[in-house]
Design brief:
The complex is a heterotrimer of chains A (376), B (279) and C (74). Chain B is α/β, with parallel strands linked by helices and 279 residues long. Chain B contains 13 helices and ten strands. Chain C contains two helices and four strands, in the order βαββαβ. The chains are: A alpha/beta (376), B alpha/beta (279), C alpha+beta (74). Strand 10 of chain A pairs parallel with strand 2 of chain B, so a sheet runs across the interface.
Chain lengths: 376, 279, 74
């Protein structure tokens, strides 16, 4: 049993990340994610890690990737405008397969928007923000305790699949304070990037062994000199213009996530067994939704909640199954209907899909969701 | 078939390189290899970081830990690498557009921080990879495909800019002045702090052709005939320096180096924690 | 016999002419699209061609028949 402490969501990101082995943070101040930088600045040198405040969001992302290439688990955090600026280098981490974690504490937009107000409008940016076809893993916590556990999982997935993982927070959870029990370090599962000698790969640093999805990785400075490039590259790591080689690379990048959904995808179902109506929501919105379905149950409406924890890849198979059991789905999110698009794509005509959202920076409250549940 | 130096520090299986006939990039890349040879650095402890553009391809040809990053961001990636593992010799190879336009912010801030990386600028006064657009170092009045009537921007002095921002070592070389340039790169790598060597490069294909500068040989002869050493240059007026190629060490000063200063914080916190445990 | 020799790797030569232009003894000349050694005997092994060749196509190496006595001047 670990100790119980009062902690803010943004602090839990840092404490969980350190527990996961994060020893490098590069960032730039931006509301409402700044506490993550502040806490990292305090905590990292205490554990022998490094913190650097970079000159901008772009360089924060770049330094994070650089540190990871040098063998150190690295993270950066930002919010809407900063997350937009990080997109190019996020794609660089995808194609070069350098693990890193990028926290986006979402706020109202577009542009500067309402900097201190909650939002969940970066769902699609998380998936499509950087150019080109690429895989995305994006996790979204709905409580402080879950933040702690899930950021550890973000690092584990990033290391295992050698891909950037987006931690899609929102202002609600980022600034929420809750008493949480910190798990004992020996109870925490830590996954580190697959490291082998390249000699086994015939000097091909991007060669993938039979039955594996990702190449092994050795940090710079450890005696296996190799080349990393954002250009399409062969197993040798060197650039290629060959269409077949480039196609094979991008296909593998996508497949290493898409073909491992059973390992990656997580979600939560609450009172869905007998539900007639299911609320689909994620992150901070789930707190209001949980309260709304409980109130609905008190009124005799069989309501449940389906919460993707991996926003990307989306738990499509699981929601599809649910959509065949319920009469109606209500998608509730702090945006104008982004996850809604994915829900509609998955559910098709299995049941009716309604939407309740917020785009004015105010909080989606239980009564608002409840009245949507009660509409029919 | 290549010289000992090239065999030892390049990846000959990837040569000949993609650069145009007469392009000075190959000369600067060799200067870097020679400087590393002269210093006797361990191959495995050298990281070459590049951005995007003609110059950036150098990383792939050199047999070290090499990383070809995004446009303008080489210094930012290098900062992460150096801070994560300060024992590595981190060398950034960059073009003038790469380092002083899109990457200008990282240049001045890395200089200000005085982080111990070395930046070698392949300064050919033009965007070569995209076909000859004017850059921040294209002299006023010269032409590029995007300055068809002559460039009206004033140009950057990259070494001066970095020094002004806090770089503790700044020098200027040229592709003609091989010995001096190798020596400056050597001094820059040995220097404890941020170092920059701005090397006057030649681009006969775009800059030369667009501005009637003649062949690669003509452009190199121009460097030879118009070179002014730094100690002489400081006595000359701006008017007298027009069109001159200044060679030499602009500045070398001792400021605290960033990664060493950070390590002091880690060490202090470690000592304090130990003391708390004892008491 | 000289202790050093001039080696030309024509496959890498792009014919820019820099080596020939800065050779102090007119050892080299552009012939067609590549450089050629036209007066090997005049070579003083100063290394200027090697240093300035952007393509690493020309260099000086020890003449093994004579033995390894040459020390690089730079």
């Amino acid at each position: 049993m670990g100790k119980t402490v009062l902690m803010q969501g943004n602090e839990a990101v840092v404490e969980g990340a350190i527990a996961a082995g994060m020893r490098f943070y590069a960032g730039y101040p931006i509301t409402p994610s700044t506490e993550i930088a502040e806490q990292s600045a305090v905590r990292l040198p205490q554990v022998g890690g490094k913190f650097i405040q970079m000159e901008d969001e772009i360089s924060s992302m770049a330094a994070t990737i650089g540190a990871s290439a040098a063998g150190v688990k690295a993270m950066t955090a930002s919010s809407g405008p900063g997350f937009s600026l990080k997109q190019e280098n996020l794609g660089y981490a995808c194609i070069t397969e350098i693990p890193c974690v990028v926290v986006d504490v979402q706020r109202s937009g577009p542009s500067t928007g309402l900097p201190t107000s909650p939002s969940q409008a970066d769902v699609m940016q998380a998936k499509w923000g950087t150019h080109g076809d690429h895989p995305v893993i994006a996790l979204s916590p709905s409580s402080v305790r879950e933040t702690y556990d899930l950021i550890i999982r973000a690092f584990n997935l990033s290391e295992k699949y050698r891909t950037p993982v987006i931690f899609l927070m929102d202002e609600i959870v980022g600034h929420l304070r809750e008493g949480i029990e910190i798990p004992d370090p020996k109870d925490i599962e830590i996954i580190n990037r697959p490291v082998k000698k390249f000699a086994k790969q015939n000097g091909l640093p991007y060669h993938v062994e039979e039955g594996e999805w990702v190449p092994t990785m050795l940090p710079f400075g450890k005696g296996q000199r190799y080349h990393i490039t954002g250009l399409a590259h062969s197993e040798s790591g060197f650039p290629t213009n060959d269409n077949a080689t480039a196609g094979k690379l991008v296909r593998r990048l996508i497949d290493k996530v898409e073909k491992n959904l059973d390992d990656i995808v997580t979600y939560e179902e609450v009172m869905c067994e007998d539900a007639d109506v299911a609320v689909v929501c994620f992150g901070g919105t789930a707190r209001a939704a949980q309260s709304a379905i409980e109130q609905a149950r008190e009124k005799g409406i069989k309501a449940g909640m389906f919460r993707p924890i991996t926003v990307w890849p989306f738990p499509g198979k699981q929601l599809e199954a649910l959509s065949k059991k319920v009469k109606r789905i209500v998608v509730a999110e702090h945006n104008d209907g982004q996850m809604l698009l994915e829900v509609q794509r998955v559910v098709k005509n299995n049941c009716k899909v309604d939407f309740v959202g917020k785009i004015d920076g105010s909080v989606l409250t239980p009564p608002v969701i409840l009245s949507k549940i009660e509409e029919e | 078939m290549a010289s000992e130096l090239i065999d030892k520090y390049m990846r000959p299986e990837h040569l000949p390189h993609i650069w145009c006939p007469g392009c000075g990039n190959g000369i600067i890349m060799r200067d870097v290899a020679q400087a590393i040879e002269n210093l006797g650095l361990d191959h495995d402890k050298v990281v070459i970081v590049s951005g995007i553009g003609c110059s950036s391809r150098a990383a792939g040809y050199m047999d070290f830990n090499t990383i070809h990053t995004t446009h303008g961001r080489a210094i930012a990636f290098a900062t992460g690498i150096k801070l994560a593992n300060p024992e590595l010799n981190v060398i950034v190879l960059a073009g003038d557009g790469d380092i002083s336009a899109i990457g200008g912010n990282h240049l001045i801030h890395a200089a200000r921080r005085n982080i111990g990386i070395t930046v070698v600028v392949f300064n050919n006064n033009i965007y070569g990879m995209t076909g000859g657009q004017y850059s921040p170092t294209t002299p006023r009045g010269e032409k590029g495909t995007t300055a068809p009537y002559g460039n009206i921007d004033r140009s950057f002095d990259i070494a001066g800019l970095a020094y002004g921002a806090g770089a503790s070592f700044a020098a200027r070389g040229s592709v003609y002045h091989v010995q001096q340039t190798i020596s400056y790169i050597q001094q820059g790598i040995s220097h404890k702090g941020f170092s920059i060597i701005d090397v006057a490069d030649i681009c006969p294909t775009y800059y030369g052709r667009k501005n009637k500068k003649g062949s690669a040989v003509d452009m190199m002869k121009y460097q030879r005939d118009n070179a002014v050493m730094q100690d002489k240059a400081v006595t000359m007026t701006a008017e007298e320096l027009k069109g001159k190629v200044v060679i030499g060490v602009l500045a070398q000063v001792n400021y605290p180096e960033f990664t060493k200063e950070y390590q002091k914080i880690i060490d202090r916190l470690g000592r304090e924690a130990e003391e708390r445990e004892r008491s | 016999m000289a202790q050093k020799k001039l080696v030309l790797n024509s496959a890498w030569c792009k014919g820019c002419g820099i080596c020939a232009a800065f050779c102090p003894k007119q050892v080299l000349a552009i012939s067609g699209e590549k450089v050629a050694i036209v007066n090997q005997d005049a070579c003083i092994f100063c290394g200027q061609c090697e240093q300035r060749c952007p393509d690493y196509a020309i260099y000086i190496e020890d003449n093994e028949e004579v033995g390894n006595q040459w020390v690089r001047p730079y």
